[in-house]
């Protein structure tokens, strides 16, 4: 049932070229330049006229929501907030008609997320559910939605569900932008083409598995890790830190790279591995300066970079080279090495990565 892999987590990481393809299949036709989303068709108008969009989720799904915030604001010019479902529910949020809530959940059963959307619905908001499990409670409580089609995710650490969420949230943003007329035809077509190429690029990133295992071995005894990224890669840094914590029990924190100098930089010394998600994008030059700040304090830098980059390899202790992609779709590719890093560190430390201690696959208590 593990398909020849030692663990479900590794199997699911390696399934991603297929699961990303499955999440796009039947929706995206790059050749024709079309995008079909059956589950939101009736609400396309409501979505494109939304006053604001609030994304509610927990854990990894919340990280997918953060990427979506950047994408939706960029393409649709609608204000977006991303909320931890548990906080949103309890602080009596200002919600009303004209607000759209996007609930993101792999299981569709997360109690905090479910309760949050039920109370928002009572206040007149429209709920769009992005779930993986078909027929789940959150899917049923939503008026509109799209399934991620990643197939059953068994590993407690979410991997393939995350990239499928990113794929579907990007499609949703493109659909709203097209409806609203806030995106040019050329950019729309370009992003459809980029989305279509993601599966192959993820397959290329998976070829780094052996190299990442070596890097994992080199740093597995570290007490703490820092994960840094900016822009679309900032949530990827958060996700890398969460994966490592869950699977290897090493303390890890994710930060926006520039925020580091406002405090966390005090932690940097020669024993601290700092993982930079530093692919070529709008923020690249700034991230290079942030890497210099870490090196000046003797931190160990492991950088996820784009092929062809000649600057960062001269500065970093280890580089992991991924294929080039438009910055909006890059997170689906740059997260792959971080999933593999967490996996290998956990396995090398002798832990049961499919069932990390204290965690359940879905958290059905508030
Ligand atoms: O099923 P959901 O997507 O609603 O679950 C949300 C979180 O509980 C989940 O992402 C959790 O953080 C995972 N263990 C992350 O790997």
From TrEMBL:
Molecular function terms from GO: carbohydrate derivative binding; glutamine-fructose-6-phosphate transaminase (isomerizing) activity
Main location group: cytoplasm
EC numbers on record: 2.6.1.16
Reaction equation(s) it catalyzes: D-fructose 6-phosphate + L-glutamine = D-glucosamine 6-phosphate + L-glutamate
GO BP term, pick one: fructose 6-phosphate metabolic process
GO CC terms of this entry: cytosol
Catalytic residues, chain numbering: 361 (for fru-6p isomerization activity)
Record field: transmembrane: none
Keyword terms: Aminotransferase, Cytoplasm, Glutamine amidotransferase, Repeat, Transferase
Location relative to the cell: Cytoplasm
Domain named SIS: residues: 43-182, 215-356
Keyword Repeat: yes
Subunit and interaction comment: Homodimer.
Function of the protein: Catalyzes the first step in hexosamine metabolism, converting fructose-6P into glucosamine-6P using glutamine as a nitrogen source.
Name recorded for this polypeptide: Glutamine--fructose-6-phosphate aminotransferase [isomerizing]
Annotated source species: Chitinophaga caeni
Phylogenetic classification of the source organism: Bacteria, Pseudomonadati, Bacteroidota, Chitinophagia, Chitinophagales
Segment of the intact protein contained: 247 to 612 of 612
